[in-house]
Amino acid sequence: TTMSLLIQKPARLLQNLREIRALGADGPSRRRLAGNMFQANLKRVHHGWSSLTSRVLGSAPVKVQLRSALDLPFYYRPGTTDLLVLEQVFLDGEYRVEPIAPESIEYIVDLGSNIGVTAMFWAQRYPEALMVLVEPDPDNFKLLQCNTASFKHRCVLINAAVSDKRGETSFFRSDREYGHSIIKGDDSVSEIKVKT
Fold this sequence. Notes:
This protein is α/β, with parallel strands linked by helices. The strands form 3 sheets. Strands 3-4-5 form a 3-stranded parallel β-sheet, covered by helices on one side. A hairpin with a 7-residue loop joins strand 1 and strand 2. The chain is globular, with a radius of gyration of 17 Å. The termini are far apart.
């Protein structure tokens, strides 16, 4: 297949870049977030972009400082969909719920914690809550550890898949780093074994 370089909805893309850039706590973080978000949006829209960005940018994690109540460092992989998850949680509000008194939340269990973006959100929103964070993918789990380090005293991290059986299972990675599953999908690109 050929890869189109046509960017659909460029006004939305520019708005998106301004919003993600504003999450950076300093100039270098803002520049890196905006540049890498541009690439993540190309990956979202143009599936052929996925392998190209990985080859050009690599997948080594980078660190930026996020502007937040907790002044959090944030680790992610450029050229992946990691920043799309940051967008979903902090900009699109996918995890915002009706107002709940922060002190009324004692525990949060996140099955499929990815790289810890939701944990960072909850750490700010529910400062007293203890969190159990489960993530089966070993690459995502490494970043989950990094992204929760500043509030690790409130977290239990588990590197395993949730299953009705203890042991090991197949785990299918998709070309979207947030779309992995124990169920093989159309976008599965590799299979690994993980603990359950």
